[in-house]
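Is this the right way to post structure tokens for a design question? Let me know if I should format differently. Anyway, here goes:
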């Protein structure tokens, strides 16, 4: 045992010779520990570089390491001659350098690396690290492909925790190639994470399968002249967390950099920090989102943040969720391509998509769903675009509750479909036919260059305003019109207008009734019949041919106005309902109601009368046929202040009506109060 101990100590400290005393006495465990302690106290320790001798084998094969010593917590384990090393138990090393060869952790095992991990970090070298259902704790820099070499890190399952100093760099330096592949397991990275760093370097992060990762610090793809590629597929989730203040996601940083994100599945989530697509310098960056299961979630997504960086985002499938999408201050070109997939907002913003140089709608179309996400704090979203939507052959589909406002010119030629909520066109929809499904609405103060077919709602104006249709319009749902005291909504149709079977919903202004016609629609031609129903327009009529080719809401002539028009009034104001030009005590309203003559003094034919019958008071009057739409008010009480209003069946009151040659006789029976005194009167209000 003494000889074995001496060999280990000597080889771990090769630069410092150690004199060992031999004894013929038995050495027990306590004396061995005392001897080891004495040697360690007398000898300063430092890390050793211990190399694998070659071939394939178990980390624990002492004979395959330099000097027959297994690397420990202060040593650098080196695989530089094409060897293959498998870790089959739990180990700690000071550093691990696989410049030419392979190092693997077998299922269920764990490696702690207190210093740097370097893979393929030499010119022409090729180093690989494999973790299969084990654990790896890295406390120092991780370089996967550096100094002109190639490195590959393959993570199949298990757990990786990256803390401490330095960064994780996949491909660093001129001619270096780095590859990080994670198909399952969980990576927790507390330090900057770079995919490609330095001029001439190439880095690739392949994130697939059921993988999961948290990035707490910077996450950068393509930095300082490198080419970086980030691939997301499968069903995993990559999360950028706001743990480190002032950090964000940068896709393309610095002069000469190029960065590509290819997302065909899984989740990319950065809800708390910004994402810069084309951050700085003259970097070029592209994010392509495809696949029905792909989801990318951003807080603010910048395209072209600074300098002359350029950026393109292609939404070809899946779901893109963002609070804001906008161009930064870069002079470089930026573009957003909609070719399938769904855009969902995370916040209310009428500049949701703003400042982008080119926004094009390809054959796959633009789908936007304004339904609020769970726990978003919104009952519905109000979002909008201020950019022009260029034509690439596709169209726009609006889904979900809430509203989308297009304040730029829409040049796309595909169909516009409103499945839910409201689509406002406040500029021009140049050449797209519009279909509004039940539950949807088309609105705004702009121009629709194509036809409109609406089983849902057409609501001209954004507020009160005019919506112009340059082709035909068929409304089978609802035409919603808002009127004010001085103006109103207008649907202006250059082609044929058909409203047969639709509902006209009128929102009238507060205050007195309208006194003049309001034009609510114009048309080139009109086919079919009128509206099936009218909501909110009591007392008004619809003229479908007002001034020839207009639909107007006109005040209906009231029964009183028609009655008053039969008389020649001597003085201005004599025709008013409250006037009494003949001075007989019956105002014009009562004369009209009781079939009297307002210009001849005397009681009207249907004047009220009263009599006592037993213990009841009988009040009678006759309503004229011309006033059949006017409901009378009968007030009563034991004093002349008339505190009560008669209602049939209440407080012993009985009201009966009977047709008569002149109209209708009303008989109101009241129970007499104690003392036998009761007063009643007739009031007419309209």
């Amino acid at each position: 045992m003494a000889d074995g101990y001496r060999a280990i100590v000597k080889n771990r400290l090769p630069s410092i010779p150690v004199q060992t005393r031999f004894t013929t006495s038995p050495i027990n465990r306590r004396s061995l520990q005392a001897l080891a302690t004495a040697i360690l106290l007398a000898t300063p320790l430092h890390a050793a570089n211990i190399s694998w001798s070659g071939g394939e084998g178990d980390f624990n094969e002492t004979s395959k390491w330099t000097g027959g010593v297994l690397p420990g917590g202060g040593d650098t384990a080196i695989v530089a001659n094409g060897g293959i090393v498998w870790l089959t138990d739990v180990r700690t090393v000071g550093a691990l350098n696989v410049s030419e060869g392979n190092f693997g952790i077998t299922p269920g095992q764990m490696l702690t690396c207190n210093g740097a991990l370097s893979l393929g970090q030499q010119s022409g070298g090729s180093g690989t690290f494999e973790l299969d259902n084990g654990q790896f704790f890295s406390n120092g820099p991780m370089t996967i492909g550096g100094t002109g070499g190639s490195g590959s890190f393959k993570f199949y399952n298990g757990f990786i925790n990256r803390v401490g100093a330095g960064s994780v760099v996949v491909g660093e330096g001129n001619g270096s190639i780095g590859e990080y592949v994670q198909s399952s397991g969980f990576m927790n990275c507390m330090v900057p994470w770079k995919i490609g760093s330095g001029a001439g370097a190439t880095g690739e992060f392949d994130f697939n399968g059921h993988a999961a990762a948290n990035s707490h610090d910077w996450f950068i793809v393509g930095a300082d002249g490198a080419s970086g590629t980030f691939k997301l597929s499968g069903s995993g989730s990559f999360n950028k967390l706001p743990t480190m203040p002032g950090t964000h996601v940068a896709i393309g940083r610095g002069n000469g950099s190029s960065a590509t994100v290819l997302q065909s599945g899984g989740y990319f989530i950065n809800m708390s920090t910004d994402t810069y697509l084309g951050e700085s310098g003259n970097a070029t960056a592209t994010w392509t989102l495809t696949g029905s299961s792909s989801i990318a979630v951003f807080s603010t997504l910048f395209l072209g943040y600074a300098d002359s960086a350029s950026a393109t985002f292609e939404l070809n499938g899946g779901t893109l969720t963002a609070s804001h999408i906008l161009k930064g201050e870069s002079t470089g070109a930026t573009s957003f391509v909609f070719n399938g997939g769904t855009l969902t907002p995370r916040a209310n913003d009428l500049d949701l998509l703003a400042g982008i140089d080119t926004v094009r709608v390809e054959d796959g179309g633009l789908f936007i769903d304004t339904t609020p996400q769970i726990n978003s704090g919104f009952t519905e979203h109000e979002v909008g675009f201020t950019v022009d939507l260029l034509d690439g052959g596709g169209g726009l589909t609006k889904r979900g509750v809430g509203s989308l406002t297009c304040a730029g010119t829409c040049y796309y030629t595909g169909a516009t479909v409103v499945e839910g909520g409201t689509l406002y066109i406040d500029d021009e929809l140049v050449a797209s036919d519009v279909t509004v499904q039940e539950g949807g609405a088309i609105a705004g103060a702009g121009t629709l260059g194509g036809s409109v077919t609406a089983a849902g709602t057409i609501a001209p104006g954004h507020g009160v305003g005019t919506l112009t249709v340059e082709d035909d319009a068929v409304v089978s749902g609802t035409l919603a019109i808002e009127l004010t005291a001085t103006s109103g909504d207008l649907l202006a149709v250059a082609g044929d207008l058909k409203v047969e079977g639709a509902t006209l919903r009128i929102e009238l202004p507060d205050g007195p009734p309208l006194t003049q016609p309001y034009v609510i629609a114009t048309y080139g031609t009109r086919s079919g019949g009128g509206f099936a129903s009218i909501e909110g327009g009591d007392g008004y009529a619809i003229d479908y041919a007002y001034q020839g080719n207009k639909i107007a809401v006109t005040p209906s002539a009231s029964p009183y106005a028609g009655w008053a028009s039969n008389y020649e009034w001597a003085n201005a104001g004599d025709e008013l309902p409250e006037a009494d030009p003949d001075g007989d005590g019956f105002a014009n309203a009562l004369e009209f109601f009781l079939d009297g003559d307002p210009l001849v003094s005397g009681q009207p034919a249907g004047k009220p009368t009263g009599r006592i019958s037993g213990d009841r008071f009988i009040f009678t009057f006759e309503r004229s046929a011309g006033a059949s739409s006017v409901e009378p008010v009968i007030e009563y009480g034991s004093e002349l202040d008339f505190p009560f209003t008669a209602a049939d069946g209440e407080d012993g009151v009985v009201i009966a009506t009977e047709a008569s040659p002149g109209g209708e006789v009303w008989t109101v029976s009241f129970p007499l109060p104690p003392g036998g005194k009761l007063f009643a009167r007739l009031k007419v209000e309209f």
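Format looks fine. Someone answered above. Worth noting: Residues 1-46 have pLDDT under 50 and may be disordered. Residues 576-684 form a domain with the Immunoglobulin-like fold (CATH 2.60.40).
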